[in-house]
Amino acid sequence: MTVRSAIETARKSSPALNQIRAQIRGKKGQKWMSVGLRSPELLYFKEGIEADQPGSFSEKRLAISQSLDFPLRSYFRIKQVGNEQSALEQQLKTEELALDAEVKKSYTTLAFQLEMIHLAEQKVQLAQRLQEAATTRFELGEASELDLMRAEIQLAEAQNDLGTAQKDLHQARYYLFNLIGFDPEEQTYAMQFPDTLTYFELEVDQEIAMTHLMSMPEYQRATLDTRAAAFGVKEAWSKILPDIRLMYYQQDFGSGYDYRGFEVGISLPLWFAFEHRGSIQQASARQNAQKWQQRAVFLSLKQQAENAWHGFENSRENIRRFHQVIRVRAQNLLDLTLEGYQAGELDLLAFLEAQRTYLSSESGYFSALRDYYFRLIELEKFIGKELVFQADE
After folding, report:
1. 74 with 30: CB under 8 angstroms?
2. Taking CA 161 as the corner, what is the angle to CA 158 and CA 359, rounded to the nearest 5 degrees?
3. Global pTM exceeds 0.85
4. pLDDT tens digits, one per residue of 198-230
5. Is residue 231 part of a domain?
6. Which domain holds residue 315?
7. Fewer CB atoms inside 10 A, N or C side of the chain?
8. Which of 1, 177, 24 is closest to 93 using CA atoms?
9. Is residue 152 domain-resident?
10. What pLDDT, in 10s, does the model give residues 139-149?
11. Which residues, 6 or more positions from 116, have their beta carbon under 8 angstroms from its beta carbon?
12. Residue 49: which H helix or E strand, with range?
């Protein structure tokens, strides 16, 4: 399973994304409801009936009546719903990017745990070599029984650390399974994951990360919500415009339905101030609040972008120090100390300290590498392209 296939599967099975998709479909249906057409009425009219002749009449009328909102009001309402739908589509993009980042971080954590297992296995191998060397020196009378006991304890602790690393790997794997949306019966140990946690040098310009803020889906959603609120204000004010009523009918004055007629009527919004003043105030307040929300979203994105870029820079400097100094020196220290202990030139405590330094440096390196990947993943949404686990990696 590649990272790309995991992301595609997670997008399909995510409850949050499917909920937004359902809301988008609902908004599409709401557009039809916003046209402002009500069900037509079919009317039958008869007058002039004499009391002693029930079948008599002076006029019969068969009519159909249609009421509708003023067209401008329907237009504002449709535009409001359309912007709300577009805002939901931008929200869907936002959630998709967040889910993509979470899947990538989960893969990074999984690869990190694989490296921790490799490191724990190396720790076991070093402990075994130490025990062999301690046993040989003890048999030759060059080491005490205390040194042999320390070596045995070191091996047992290394084996415990390996078991802990394996447990953490299983937890990371099952977290990824749950994130993707696999059913429990699909969560098998037969699945294989690529070990791709390797360092690569990358330059990211801070200006690039800061120039795409207004095109990001979070900000686009806030902008569309503001536009929708503005159309909501216009729709509220448009209620001052009259409703329209149309009627077409056929008339029978005793010789058949030989006559035609029509009616056109409009409502008189005499009580507009009492009926719709509150809705206008609510719509205006909602628009004002949405403008501030749009501003807050921009400032939040700006802060996130700055934090992501500075975090990337710091993480990259840490990785460089590990590559240039720490790992190389720690490996040389371990090799020289082991040779010195095997030759009887150094005691066991010196070797244990060198081993601790080496293992600590390796663990710190992979932790820094994991953090480096995390910072790159966070930067991806600000620069608009993938930086890690690209294509079908």
Report:
1. no
2. 70
3. no
4. 777 777 777 887 888 999 999 999 999 999 999
5. yes
6. 3-39+70-116+131-141+178-244+279-383
7. C
8. 24
9. no
10. 777 667 787 78
11. 165, 168, 169, 363, 366
12. none
